[in-house]
Amino acid sequence: MSTATHEETLGFQTEVKQLLNLMINSLYSNREIFLRELISNAADACDKLRYAALDNDALYEGDSDLRIEIEHDASANTVTLRDNGIGMNREDVIANLGTIARSGTAEFMQQLTGEQQKDAKLIGQFGVGFYSGFIVADEVTVRTRKAGTSAQEGVEWRSRGEGEFSVADIERDKHGTEIILHLKDDAKEFADEYRLQGLVRKYSDHIEVPVRMPKIETAKDDDGNEIEGSEVTTWETINEATALWVRPKSEVSDDEYKAFYKHVAHDFSDPLTWSHNKVEGKLEYTSLLYVPGRAPFDMFERDGARGVKLYVQRVFIMDDAEQFLPLYLRFIKGVLDTRDLSLNVSREILQQDPKVEKIKGALTKRALDMLKKLSKDDEQYKTFWSTFGSVLKEGPGEDPANREKIGELLRFASTHTDTAAQEQSLAGYIERMKEGQQKIYYVVADSFNAAKNSPHLEIFRKKGIEVLLLSDRIDEWLMTHLTEFDGKTFADVAKGELDLGDVENEEEKKAQEETAKAKEELVKRVKEALGDGVQEVKITHRLTDSPACVVLPEHEMGYQMRRIMEAAGQPLPEVKPILELNPEHALVDRLEASDDDAFGQLAHILLDQAIIAEGGHLDDPAAYVKRLNSVLTA
Ligand code: ADP
Ligand code: MG
Q1: Among its keywords, does the record have Mitochondrion (predicted)?
Q2: Ligand 1 within 6 A of CB of 266
Q3: Is the pLDDT of residue 1 over 50?
Q4: Under DSSP, is residue 38 helix (H, G, I), strand (E, B) or coil?
Q5: pLDDT tens across 375-406, in order?
Q6: Which of 88, 56, 79, 51 is nearest to 66 (CA)?
């Protein structure tokens, strides 16, 4: 009966094989999600056909009543899903159902461990999609034909999920896709009407396309007995089948919002929060934005998927419309449905349309407000921050207009708790500021410990002034853009003149000046001994425990950023530090008392140590060791 021709057997891409193996093991306790994934794909296929048919009605082939049908056969142990969506041609089938064409997939797969719990989480983050059929099926058959092609151009794909699949040409009079799952022995429970209906309602109620199941009706005679041979099949729509975002907020339950999130975001786990808004007036749009509960595996890939699903007057236009949100909010998922764009809008047009910029501005505000609300819940916000905080830190640089709002959302580690957890808000910092303190102080280093133990903090600790401890790669860059918050400026404690504002009184300042004066001769000698190695030598009161530290001029690029740029192969002009000496320290006393030879050794040692304490690299480490040893053995 089969008219299949041009049959070939192909191997799955390595990553697909790995995914299949792991998925089957790790998602066993969650296997019902296969139905959600396949319905989600069928709904996407209907959306795509509706879009393509906008300028070519013929693609409907006379059947514009888009729908998904689910049937089962308990005796054959099969569940069949059918859609009259866009369908696939042979090339599509091989690419879509034989490979995973997402960048970073191979790297992602390497992270999988073989441990069920961990991998289930990771796979969820990746999105299981079509292949989830193999969690319940030992054989999957796909019959499909792309809308607009001839009946001869149908394709049949078959696989047992064991490394290879076959494709063959078939005749298929309808466009769209049919997926037949041959259930595994232990998954027979799914060949059941009630079970399937329950799952459709649980996972796919929000899908706009109707999901139908057959209902066999039998006519009855006057006595109420079924009339033999009178069975007719009618189709019953199981899901709500209206676009969720179109419904009023008050009528949508949390569970429905969550289920819808999984469909739009291709995610497996619940979102942290969402914001659903209808806007009428100059701009007319409905948006439903979500904050995911975890990062997609490709968040830091340049070409990772991002943006919202775009609809124009309920018609699906495109996935991942990235023009409506700034990059630093790329983790936000959701839907935008607008009347302000035309149905034949393309990515190119989106880039030029001034309305897009306006909607982007509005959505950005919505998203920031949503995060602000989320920040009221400490636990949830901790999850958010640890997942997306480093992305949000790109905000002040990318979007100066919203700097203040973003500033409210930032969290830092600080000397307030001295723990690595980034939990302090700037508002909290300002509340704790000392009397007379005008600036928000921070230190940047390569690691939390280096920041926490930086010699620059000594005076701040002594005076009880809080300092933000920054050690993320992006932090120094962030601080070059965050210049101000709530009317307060920021100061890097390792740069420029030490300025404690009015925390120090006149007497202290005077005493410092006097000490500096008394040590003028020492400073001169050190500068002579170090020559070009330093820009300047000074007496400082920053330090309580360390003998010396290096300070960078106010507007010089910091050490963290320098190291990042150098690692990226960027040539940078040499920077000469300012060496500051602690007049209270025994080593400085000893330096002062040394004769010229020992003086030179010790001065170099102090400078090199200060550079090391900063996390810096010495140009000539061997010379440092030699000098140190000669002093130790003297
Ligand atoms: P995703 O949905 O995240 O793209 P899937 O693994 O679920 O990933 O599906 C892979 C691809 O296979 C889809 O992007 C789509 O191109 C194609 N596909 C799957 N199911 C269908 C379907 N019912 N009709 C048309 N294309 C489909
Ligand atoms: Mg999918």
Answers
A1: no
A2: yes
A3: no
A4: helix
A5: 999 999 999 999 999 999 999 999 999 999 99
A6: 51
Question: Which DSSP symbol is given to 384?
Answer: H
* Sign of the alpha-carbon torsion through 532, 537, 542, 547: positive
Ligand 1 neighbour 127 (Cβ under 6 A): yes
- One domain, residues 45 and 110: yes
Q: Which of 136-145, 305-314, 398-407 has the lowest mean pLDDT?
A: 305-314
Ligand nearest to the CA of 97: 1
98 Cβ closer than 6 Å to some ligand 1 atom: no
154-159 and 5-11 strand pairing: unpaired
Looking at the structure, tell me whether residues 378 and 295 fall in a common domain: yes
Please, which residues have CB within 8 angstroms of residue 283's CB and are 6 or more apart in sequence? 338, 340, 355, 358, 359, 362
Give the tens place of pLDDT for each residue, 172-186: 999 999 999 999 999
Mean per-residue pLDDT of the chain: 91
262 lies in the same domain as 341: yes
In sign, the C-alpha dihedral spanning 138, 188, 186, 31 is: positive
Q: Is 209 in the pocket of ligand 1 (CB under 6 A)?
A: no
Q: What is the pTM of this model?
A: 0.84
Fill in the DSSP letter of residue 269: S
Q: Tell me what pLDDT residue 3 has.
A: 67
Q: Which tokens is 425 given? A: 């808000």
* Residue whose token pair is 């150098």: 566
Mark whether 599 and 612 lie in a shared domain.
yes
Task: Identify whether residues 497 and 511 lie together within a single domain.
Answer: no
Same domain membership, residue 480 and residue 618? no
Distance of CA 358 to the CA centre of its chain: 24
Claim to verify: residue 42 and residue 155 sit in the same structural domain: yes
Determine the Cα–Cα distance for residues 173 and 147; give it in Å rounded to an integer.
11
Whether the Cβ atoms of residue 215 and residue 234 lie closer than 8 Å to each other? yes
Question: Which helix (H) or strand (E) is 604 found in, with range?
Answer: helix 596-613
Of the candidates 273, 289, 255, which has an alpha carbon nearest to the alpha carbon of residue 374?
273
**What atom of ligand 1 comes closest to residue 85's alpha carbon?**
24
CA of 38 to the centre of ligand 2 (A): 7
Residues 483, 375 share a domain:
no
Euclidean distance between CA atoms 184 and 375, whole angstroms? 46
